[in-house]
Amino acid sequence: MEVEKKIRKVVKFQSLILSQPQNTIPISLLDTLARRLGLGFKQHEPGAFLLKFPHVFEVYEHPVQRILYCRLTRKALDQIRDEQEAVQAQIPDAVTRLRKLVMMSNTGRIRLEHVRIARGEFGLPEDFEYSVILKHPEFFRLVDADETRDKYIEIVGREQSLSVCAIERVREIEYRTKGIDAEDVRFSFVVNFPPGFKIGKYFRIAVWKWQRLPYWSPYEDISGYDLRSLEAQKRLEKRAVACIHELLSLTVEKKITLERIAHFRNVMNLPKRLKEFLLQHQGIFYISTRGNYGKLHTVFLREAYKRGELVEPNEVYLARRRLAELVLMSPRKAKVDAELVRYRNGFDDEDDDDSE
């Protein structure tokens, strides 16, 4: 099972436990609640799953009821607190990120529910509707759609300085520090192909031409342009690359699931077959599909990572890395009660002398 998938399920179980009275849950209820969450576990698998991560979940016997319960470990609770504090501390940055996200929309507004689903990726707090949107009426307003009950986030005014894309700052650095010709980097992207990727002569020429192809900025209104010509279609395709690049740059970990990118497809003029489109640009994006049976894909911005670590880490990213460390930590390093070992292996008739 891929690490990303493990962490997603761990986070769902954490939320489930924290939503229960006294932040504990009987093991006997896990099967039912896991099915409601749609986690895809078979019978008795949720309990076995939690036992794989003793640094995150603590399974214990209730002193009165004499049945097994599960709660979060102190390390897991500390990690959650650190992440929440990091998210709160960077709310001013989150406001800017959300402003830029809405500005990328071709209508100047984005569905509130789509942002809510992806709030973790953009570093928005759970109460972002109040703490980020309603608290900043000078930047946002919430409106109800005429035809549906959906709410939309609308931008109030467009600040020109926010229309600068992350890739433009990268090009500025390339131009000033490496002495690369301005025309060579004016419309280019950082391209790093994966190891073993074969680059032939004609492919190299095609990439060279594509890097120099002009395109419209993700923040530019293109509604008045004639997009029917072949040249316009090429520019529109490159603009889609720029939109996804900017979208990833606005996330706190420079990654987001493909399914959540799809939520913004219509408002950002992105292609329908997103996965196939991204695979055509493997030097810019990396799609992780290993271990999740093709059901869920995570898209990474290649240039933002080096040896699996974020090049420019932030406090939210570092807090989430601590959860990954707890998930990956060997179970042998945790004190697992013999009662739990018997539960996992199905041996209910062993002595419980070694319960420490």
From TrEMBL:
It holds the Pfam family PORR. This is PORR domain-containing protein. One of its GO terms (molecular function) is RNA binding. Residues 1-331 form the PORR domain. It comes from Brassica carinata.
